[in-house]
Automatic annotation (TrEMBL):
Belongs to the ABC transporter superfamily. This is ABC transporter. Keywords: ATP-binding, Nucleotide-binding. GO terms for cellular component: plasma membrane. Residues 2-203 form the ABC transporter domain. It comes from the Bacteria. GO terms for molecular function: ATP binding; ATP hydrolysis activity; transmembrane transporter activity. InterPro entries: AAA+_ATPase, ABC_transporter-like_ATP-bd, ABC_transporter-like_CS, ABC_transpr_LolD-like, P-loop_NTPase. Pfam families: ABC_tran. PROSITE patterns: ABC_TRANSPORTER_1, ABC_TRANSPORTER_2.
């Protein structure tokens, strides 16, 4: 469960993005955050993911205030509980595809062999048919997006935040990805998806327009 309570955020004093914004995201649900470009959806995801600090208000994780904690404590919470799919995939171009998928889970202390096995399963499920030792600079935008999704799902995070996870995908692959996100939510996680796609929003349990 993650809650935004009276959140406010300004990139600069003349550029308020969010003002007094509140919502609760229950475990076991998938929520779509929708709204026009530039409205602040990505910014909100960064705030919910404890990567930005709100100017006002707070983010609570399982009822505990988290957004005002020191950097190291927020980093620990992110590592233990969150999975992220960033809008631009944000893969490490110096590492192979398979290492990109496993790195977060290995950092968290998960078993290396089990991680590698599950990584291959996920890549296959999302039809990422590139050699696992290839570098992310040699994959397409849609493949990079699915690799980022595999990385996020690998550690079965309690909270999964995905920014336009289907932006570069065809309709069939979009359905596979949305199905996997919904399955993850319905196994007990909190999933929040930023999307411009009415079909993706309709597949979520709830839509919150910004
Ligand atoms: N790093 C930044 N520094 C300054 N301003 C920023 C920064 N990132 C975003 N903004 C501004 O904050 C506002 C909200 O941006 P954000 O990316 O959160 O919107 P969005 O709803 O996710 O947009 P889109 O749908 O186009 O991805 C925009 O006016 C944007 O220009």
């Amino acid at each position: 469960m993650i809650e935004a309570r009276e959140l406010g955020f300004d990139w600069s004093p003349r550029m308020p993005v969010l003002d007094n914004w509140s919502a609760a995201f229950e475990s076991g649900t998938m929520t779509a955050l929708t709204g026009p470009s530039g409205r602040g959806k990505s910014t909100l995801l960064y705030l919910l993911g404890l990567m930005l600090r709100p100017t006002h208000g707070q983010v609570l994780i399982d009822g505990e205030p988290a957004s005002a904690l020191p950097d190291a404590a927020r980093a620990r919470i992110r590592s233990a509980r969150f999975g992220f799919v960033f809008q631009d995939a944000a893969l490490d171009s110096t590492r192979t595809v398979i290492d990109n998928v496993t790195e977060v889970a290995l950092y968290r202390g998960d078993d290396r062999q089990a991680c590698a096995h599950r990584a291959r399963e996920l890549l296959e499920r999302f039809s990422v048919d590139v050699p696992p030792l290839r570098k992310p600079t040699q994959v397409s935008g849609g493949q990079a997006q699915r690799i980022a999704l595999c990385r996020a799902l690998l550690s079965r995070p309690l909270i999964l935040l995905a920014d336009e996870p289907t932006g570069n995908l065809d309709p069939a692959t979009t359905r596979t990805v949305v199905g996997a996100l919904a399955e993850h939510a319905h196994s007990g996680a909190t999933v929040i998806v930023v999307t411009h796609s009415p079909a993706v929003a309709a597949a979520c349990d709830r839509e919150i327009p910004l």
